[in-house]
Amino acid sequence: MLKKTLLVSGIALAVAAPAMAEQRTSSVRDNGFSYSYGQLAYDRWDFDGDWDADALSAEGSFGLDEHIFLRGALRFYDGDYDIDGKQLSAGVGFHTPLQQGLDFVTSADIIYDDRDYRFGDDDDVGFEVRGGVRHATTEKLELSGGLTYIDLYDDDLGVYGEGLFKVTPVVDLGARVVVASDRDSIGVFGRYNF
């Protein structure tokens, strides 16, 4: 029941978000956040205290217009119990300014996971939906966070957070964390904005 409620809520939010953006009272049109970038990342995953994995990924985002962006990622992971695998994800996102230095951001990704382990292999197609805010905390630091819901092998609801430090106008270094009921992850990444 929770899974269906969250899915319907996410779809309703995605459909209503453009209309809400037109009705906003803020005069801010663009906070200057980059939604077009490529990045390399390392993450440490912990699945319900059962098994851990190290993941390397190449990720990207491309802004189509002032509100819509495309997302994609390719991940390779290696974990306990001879588990290793790869993930391919693609999706779409929406962002709009709420006020000066603060954007509302939501995204939805389709995820394909192919996993090999000691006793065989497994694969699944699922999705992840996120919704939260992105904040220009200082001139060099951005913070973001919100809710994440993933349905891949099993469904899981959690929170995410990310910090982004601007090294140069086009290069950023970041750290991220996800805390959920069945999965936790912590990671670092380097980003090139274009």
Automatic annotation (TrEMBL):
Entry superkingdom: Bacteria
Keyword terms: Signal
Signal peptide: 1-21
Protein name per its UniProtKB record: Outer membrane protein beta-barrel domain-containing protein
Protein source organism: Alcanivorax profundi
